[in-house]
């Protein structure tokens, strides 16, 4: 599994919104400037979150984006599943039930399933708030 640029930038965008949650709606251009990401790229990421309940948006001169809920309500796993589609380390685990024709004789299947469990539990155990708190204590993101 490799996290794409889209996934990494989406995390940075949502972390920026979490960090500035008390500032009202935040313009995409401000996030782009602070995160050194092109505004056009962020405009491509926004539609991923449109129907997810993660963002609130408003239009107009004071328009922008903000998190719909508090940062402790969002996990890294949830966000990356939206941007990446799946966090499975191998293709055969992307479908449920597993449709691989070798599933009955595959010696590695339990290994891949275990790895998938570790990845998902780890990422689901980290919230945006956790990352903000770590940044405050170390002055660096863990991402």
Task: Name its key features.
143 residues; mainly alpha; two-stranded antiparallel ribbon; 2 strands
Structure characterization notes:
This protein has 143 residues and is mainly alpha-helical. It contains 6 helices and 2 strands. A two-stranded antiparallel ribbon has the order 1-2. A hairpin with a 5-residue loop joins strand 1 (55-58) and strand 2 (64-67). Helix 1 (5-19) crosses helix 2 (28-35), helix 1 crosses helix 3 and helix 1 (5-19) packs across helix 4 (76-84). It starts with a helix and ends in a 5-residue tail after the last helix.
- By secondary-structure content and strand pairing, the structural class works out as mainly alpha
* Spatial arrangement of strands, main beta sheet: 1-2
Give a count of the beta strands, DSSP E runs of length 2 or more. Answer: 2
Mean pLDDT: 90
The level of helicity is 40-55%
Query: What percentage of amino acids are in beta strands?
Result: 5-15%
Low-confidence stretches: none
Distance between the termini: 16 Å
Q: What is the makeup of the main sheet?
A: 2 strands, antiparallel
Determine the number of helices (DSSP H or I, runs of at least 4 residues): 6
Order of helices and strands: HHHEEHHH
Indicate the radius of gyration in whole angstroms.
17 Å
State the shape. Answer: elongated
